[in-house]
Amino acid sequence: MVVPFRALALAFRLVALVLIATGLVRILGLLTPSPSWASLTYYTVLSNVLCLVWVAVLVWTTARDLRRRGTRGWSTPSPRFGGAVMEAITVTMLVYLVVLVPTTFQQAGDYEPFTLTDNLIHIITPCLLIADWLLFSPKGTFRWTDPLRWALIPYAYLLFAFTWSALGGTFGGSRRYPYPFMDVDAHGVGGVALWIAVLTVALVAVGYVFVAADRLLDRLAARGDAGSTATPGARMPRARPQRTTCMARAASVSDPVSEG
């Protein structure tokens, strides 16, 4: 299903843009005398930057379409790329909740999880991207091969992180590895490879959950449309109605003049 109201989508996306930007400003310390640019070497921060850019594109596209095409319709320029961004930031949330927070509680240190900044970049931003997809992105567009493609984003970061570490670079100013599960000195090559394999399986599984949900929501919406057009009191035929994607339905409610 898609909520085909661009004004509502624009309002939601503007709020999302402000919240994502707030999280980045806080984690990078942009309002302090000494910003923490070294934080840009972490996947968490880079994935939030990716979300900021994507949501900014959504805001611009929605505002443009609202002016040119009217209030009804959807404004997501590339739903499948949006799925890749959603998957990338979902990785941030899952690794934080399943790996990093439990590790923090097991080790000594002054770091405290679930602060406002942590919640913004690890939990709120992922939830905003998922909500935007659920409410304002056309369904029926994801392919079963997409989760494998989406995994290239975190794998690109792994390549960068291990290469940077091998060249003598540090993370956060002093750490050789950005995350505990990537610490080859502590876990060995085999241990790190096992961690990556397990997280890869989880990552791809979450991607397939998104694909399955995308197709299920599209089918439910198609059945709802078929039911709403049926004559009251008439029996529905047993044959499955022709499948209509949310993209086609949303396009049909757009201003026909602007489509020319």
From TrEMBL:
Alphabetical UniProt keywords: Membrane, Transmembrane, Transmembrane helix
Residues that span the membrane, as ranges = 7-28, 40-60, 81-99, 119-136, 148-172, 192-213
Is NAD among this UniProt entry's keywords? Answer: no
Note the InterPro entries from the entry. Answer: Pr6Pr-like
According to UniProt, the name of this protein is Pr6Pr family membrane protein
